[in-house]
Amino acid sequence: MSQAPIQSVPTNIITGFLGTGKTTAINHLLEHKPDAERWAVLVNEFGQVGIDGSLIREQDGIEVKELAGGCLCCALGPSLPITLATLLRRFRPDRLLIEPTGLGHPARIIDTLQNETFRQVLDLRSIICLLDPMVLHQPEVLRQPGFIDQLNLADLIVLNRIDLAGKDEIAEATRLSTNLFPPKLAIHATTRGQLAPEWLDLSHLPQRKARYPHSHTASSSRNSLAPVPRQEMPEPGRPRAQVGKQDGYYSYGWIFAADDAFEWQAVQEYLDGLDGITRLKAVLKIGHAWVSYNRNDSYPATVGESAWRRDSRLEILSTQALNQDQIETGLLTCLKALQP
């Protein structure tokens, strides 16, 4: 017996620049998923080594699909319709959440969700943009077209990490959000990505327009991240490395063999001491336990337990070229000796 066609799946895009807490916010939303529903999460990462998918907590009724190696709006744009169709057909979700990379531009994703193929299948609802008030101290971010249009195309803006910002930054971020046109449905403030589930069902306003719709497309943003052949697997003490550059950002990633385990104090001190880092995410095996490590250049690292069990992996984003070999050597010195 054939299944009924998939129709009008509620869909939300959770945007925000690097380090604004998008993955944390999605984890919070998933904790409030109705027990009877199935939710799908599509996570896009700039680097080749996928980290965010491993940071989303596995639960019954949740399917996570990760697209790494560039932005959905440019390098991975052709993959988006295929990935969406496959995810919808196989999992048949009751809701779809999409987390683009913080460097991405939402316009092309919106166009895909509303084209002839998906117009009847997906019901695009509120686009929620997380804004860290401390970004006001980073003029290079404020000038970036992708950041500007993440705000322009959002239906709701949520000031996140307000516990780490001052009153002046929060007030200025609120004024910035309030002055956008068309006006936002709401402007909220929160900590640790605590989005209210009811915000997901607010309407999307199609009249919202991008100021720079062509700034980050396949023709204007060439991805030089070179994929490694699928058959290449890391060996103990010999991680698989990935390096790339796009739009002024450098990506450095490593995947370690499943048998590799780190000395926690050594690797934590090493990662804390790395300079020139815009963003660093990792999931690491330390003995019989696994931890997640998340660091932005503006904040101390946050550490937590991880349910990931496949391998240790690490991704660094930077606006300057780093010494890949030197970093890898430092990581290797933090490994525990393998037992014979």
From TrEMBL:
Name of the protein: GTP-binding protein
Region (Disordered) residue spans: 211-242
Gene Ontology terms: cellular component: cytoplasm
InterPro entries reported in the protein's UniProt record: CobW/HypB/UreG_nucleotide-bd, P-loop_NTPase, Zinc-reg_GTPase_activator
Pfam annotation, one family: cobW
Entry-linked SUPFAM superfamilies: P-loop containing nucleoside triphosphate hydrolases
Domain (CobW/HypB/UreG nucleotide-binding): residue spans on this chain: 10-175
